[in-house]
Amino acid sequence: MKIIKITKLRLALVVPFILFLTSCADDKKDEKLSFPTLEVCSQQLLNSDSSFMCIDDETRNIQVNIKFASYSFALRDNAKKTLDELYAFLRLTKEQPFTIKGYASKTESALLKDSDHLITKQNIELSQARASSVKTYLVQKGLSPDNIKVEVMGYQDPVVTNDTQANRSVNQRVEITIKSQLVQQLDYLRKHFKHVNIDHYKRFFSNVYLMDKQSSEYVAQIYDSREKRQVLTSHFTIFVNQPFYADDGQIFTIASKPQPISEFNNDMKVFKLGEAKYNYVYKNITALTILNTNQEVKIGDYAIPTKMITPELPEQSFTMNKKITANVMEDVQNTTTLSSSFNNIIINKGKADGLVPGAEMFLYMPETRADGYPIPPKYLGYGFIYRLSDHYSIILIINSLQEISGEAMATTRI
């Protein structure tokens, strides 16, 4: 990485990057974006020398911290990755004005005394260059320069003392704070929200199950029955075209043909038709006995070990430490009706994004605009995840203030 000397800063600052880059920004706006996963801001994270984006557990504000090498305003790879996440967050939550604060770390020597104001002047120039490089990068990505303000802080407000090189690397930074517009609704949430005993809500679980690459390898097709009937019912013995060496009596789910959820990945969903138990394997064929059916079962339907599509659930729902945000895709039955309390919805984030069974999800409408005026986001309700694949999850809605449509969002933290 090329390090630019402090004496070259003044020349670098006059280069008119932003006006040029704005003309290229529109081409970036249609790229496929995904909400970043946000850790809760910890003291260890705040004192690190790596760039990061986190959520303040008290204010619910998003904190962005971009770190730089000594005497440099060049963006490192980790800084660009963090700014890419910030860009995605701002684009998906409707862009809002914010301030970039540039900092430097004060370094004195026997030759340079701050009484000459030279160190102060150099720190101001370096802070300006760092803030400008961050603004330039975000404008190049597609943000409007009119929504970005720059403040030059010099060596004010150090995170830690500037007495060592390690500490100075923490202070060489740019800070951005994104205020959550849902904060005003937290009082209502705190009064009405509570963790729930998951067992009490299992009767509301849907008959739709999610499958990813791993679980799809365990799907087998029903090709015959001992009773030689096309339509199958309880107590029939059925045969599937894959060997399963399981414990006696292990439960299998009888399901419809797996259907893709999206063209972007291999995750699928199936509809539960009934249950069967394991009998034996003979010549690579597994025999099962049907225990019950909730819909017509016939030759050509499918069977899968229930444990492969039913995650173990905790006794009680819980709030995750990470902030993971997703889009509500549809009511789980894919109906045209809107969802409300005790309905089930699918969201477009799953295990690969860090979601886990039992995690609580808060539902809200993002900020919109009407006649040119912003309408702030609105809290809609909450639920918890009880089934998930690599890229999708099913949420049972516990409480909703109004019906939830496909335009709603779901997040682990507000």
UniProtKB/TrEMBL annotation:
UniProt key word Membrane: yes
Pfam families xref list: OmpA
Domain OmpA-like: from-to ranges: 55-182
PROSITE patterns the record matches: OMPA_2 (PS51123), PROKAR_LIPOPROTEIN (PS51257)
Cellular component aspect of the GO annotation: membrane
SUPFAM superfamilies membership: OmpA-like (SSF103088)
UniProt protein name: OmpA family protein
Organism this protein belongs to: Francisella frigiditurris
